[in-house]
Amino acid sequence: MSKKFDVIVVGGGPAGMMAAITAAMNGAQVALFEKNKRLGKKLLMTGGGRCNVTNNRSVDDLIFHIPGNGRFLYSTFSQFDNQDVMNFFSERGVALKEEDHGRIFPVSDKSATIVNTLKTELETLNVAVHYKEPIEKIITDGTTIQGVRTAEGDYAAKSVVITTGGITYPSTGSQGDGYRFAKSVGHHVTPLYPTESPIFLTDDFVMDKTLQGLSLQDVTLAVVDEKNKIIASHEMDLLFTHFGVSGPAALRCSSFVNQLLRKQETVTLTLDCFPEQSKHELLETINEQLNDSTKQLKNALSGLLPERLLLFFLEQVGISDQTYAQTSKEQFATFVEYCKHWQITANKTFGLEKSFVTGGGVELKEVNPKDLSSKKIPGLFFAGEVLDVNGYTGGYNITTAFCTGNVAGTNAAYYAFA
Ligand SMILES: Cc1cc2nc3c(=O)[nH]c(=O)nc-3n(C[C@H](O)[C@H](O)[C@H](O)COP(=O)(O)OP(=O)(O)OC[C@H]3O[C@@H](n4cnc5c(N)ncnc54)[C@H](O)[C@@H]3O)c2cc1C
To answer: Atom 21, ligand 1: which residue's CA is nearest?
Structure first.
């Protein structure tokens, strides 16, 4: 093998760029291979093109927001966490700002600010970035890592870091190659499934387009199992679409929907449009608003809910054209039930291709949490979404990618010099 490096990083997403930078900061000669003609194609898409760099929370809270094996990351975050991610960019002149739910963005509102900063750092540290050169194979002698193979030839390295991402949005380059590489050296990959995905509903109101395009702020969407137990609930925004629901609340519930769909055909979701009020309090609010009004309820209750949803709920109970005096206590109780505990039915989410994040990945039992090295073959490291870790959108996956990238890159350099 004519070309030699200390560390080779496979994949130029946030995990790979950070791994390459950190390995180089630790004195290693590093090559980064990216199959696209540019770095960070998926990262550029996040946060609606503004790049949701990280999230400003305590480490415990970060882990809570990484429902797919977040606890595996305690050791990673004890070495490099979200505050370190923010410092990394601030020290390189990137002004950051915090938005709702702790989400951190560059003040420029442009993902390119983040990707360009990483690219400049790679250049400053003399990392050899090989664009449009996909890794085809990880080379081993059966016991240790020897290097990698591309269509251009073989490259030798003492350490190889796999940061090829998941398998969602394959047009970004994340096409599951890393799972193949991991398997080729004896690793297991847990079943892959879509997470952070819009949800399809079977209810008639979807087919009828009754609520299509309606968005609700700060409502609670919950996933309920067959024993009527709530297994996940999220108070966030929700959007009704032509197929079902999307928006942050739906995305967060989607992995739980998929887990239940493995054993049942449909999954019940409940929607609470007034999470800050009990049923009793809501009834009082309604009574105050009606104040013995003689108007039809659809007019008298105007403003309680977005107009289309109000009308829909009133029609479900059959009271939209009635007045306060014509409506029974039981009918009001049913209306309140719709407002607080409306049951809708999911039968699938988008597939892996159209979901934001891959659930499942390289089996974590076979990876050392302290340094992210392979327990199967010395010199191999993993970071980012290729691991069996998935978080909510809102910066949690990107934080995972940057932080695991830092730890894997550091330890890949240490291993190369050992
Ligand atoms: C539309 C969208 C919005 C998102 N929004 C958010 C958000 O708001 N918050 C959040 O936390 N997460 C979000 N995510 C998820 C987040 O972008 C990913 O979790 C994150 O980018 C994973 O980083 P990574 O470095 O592990 O992998 P990736 O970013 O997927 O990068 C992997 C790289 O490896 C390259 N590669 C693959 N195979 C090879 C090979 N054989 N040889 C060479 N190179 C290879 C790919 O081309 C790619 O550039 C979003 C995802 C999408 C699709």
So the answer is: 43
